[in-house]
Amino acid sequence: DSDKRGFDSLMQCHTGMFDLHSRFVGRQEHLPVQALDYLTGMLGALGACVALKRRRMSPSNLSYIVNVSLERTAQFLMRELPLRPKRY
């Protein structure tokens, strides 16, 4: 729900990121950083910049809404990043 707060660590569990990372490192642990919080915040800031530019370039001064979510960010990362990082 958009009116509820989200928590990075809970979303890692919900989407399977916690399990995947735990299997890779060989013990149960969350990602070493709050990646979903950081990336979702950056996407929101980027969306605000794009919306402001579009509004400035629009002849009717339209308004825009930027929607971001921890879950969609997690789904994107799980889909786009390799599931097994190479070990060197």
User: What is the chain-wise order of helices and strands?
Assistant: HHHH
Class derived from helix and strand content: mainly alpha
Work out the radius of gyration. 17 Å
User: Mean pLDDT across all residues, rounded?
Assistant: 86
How many strand segments?
A: 0
Q: Percent of residues in helical segments? A: 55-70%
Largest sheet: none
Ranges where pLDDT stays below 50 over 5 or more residues in a row are none
> What is the first-to-last residue Cα distance?
41 Å
Discrete helix count: 4
Rough outline: elongated
Descriptive report:
The chain contains 4 helices and no strands. The longest helix has 23 residues, at 35-57. The protein has 88 residues and is mainly α. It is elongated. The mean pLDDT is 86. It has helices spanning 8-15, 17-25, 35-57, 70-80.
